[in-house]
Amino acid sequence: MKQKFKTWLPLFPGFYSTIFEYDREEYDIDSYNEENNTDLSFDDFDFDYREYEQRVAVRFTDRLEKELKQYMEIGIVFENIYRPREYNFTNDSINVEIEVDLDVVLDKIRENKKSASEIIRNKHTSCSGFISFHSPDIDTWLDKSYIMADPAYRVGQLLETLCDIWIDRDDIYYWCDGEMWIDFTPKKQTTSI
């Protein structure tokens, strides 16, 4: 039976220091200056980074849903972008509501148990400088009650594990090609008398 889970979107690497961080301002400014015969600099423009990030996040969500529908019935609805206060240990993530049958997800994990076990073990084994709050044992992850004890994280992790098995991470960078632009406008110039 399908259930709705609020969780994070698998595979999305965030914006900060990734391929999705907008870094084409210099090109945009040069193009603007050439088209308008001006000599403006970065400080003379307002760039709408929030709109850009929202558009990319929605597109990424839609594309991941399409990819996962090849393997199971699933619905993914974009909710918002989480931006950490500091980027030392984490990056931006996309919060979503996922509608899926958890039993089907667990069956897919069982079908790919060897690969899933390696992914879960690598992600959740404590080591020097890292204490995992989740089990590194795949059999624990196959227990529905374990998943339901923290569905906001664990459903997302199960889906990311399946994505790592089914989807080539190198392909995700092309999912948002058509969205890699930003709205920007010159700031109003004030003149002094």
Task: Kindly describe this structure.
With 193 residues, this protein is of the alpha+beta class. It has one domain (2-180). 41% of the residues lie in helices and 16% in strands. The protein has 7 helices and 5 strands. The strands form 2 sheets. The protein has a 3-stranded antiparallel beta sheet. Helix 3 crosses helix 7 and helix 4 (113-124) packs across helix 7 (151-166). The model has no long low-confidence stretch (mean pLDDT 93).
Order of helices and strands: EHEHEEHHHHHE
**Quick check: average pLDDT?**
93
Number of domains: 1
Strand ordering within the main sheet? 1-4-3
Strand content: 15-25%
Report the C-alpha radius of gyration, rounded. Answer: 21 Å
Shape: elongated
| Helix content class | 40-55%
Total DSSP E strands = 5
User: Mind summarizing the main beta sheet?
Assistant: 3 strands, antiparallel
The low-confidence runs, each spanning 5 or more residues with pLDDT under 50, are none
The secondary-structure class comes to alpha+beta
Number of helices: 7
Q: How many angstroms separate the termini?
A: 71 Å
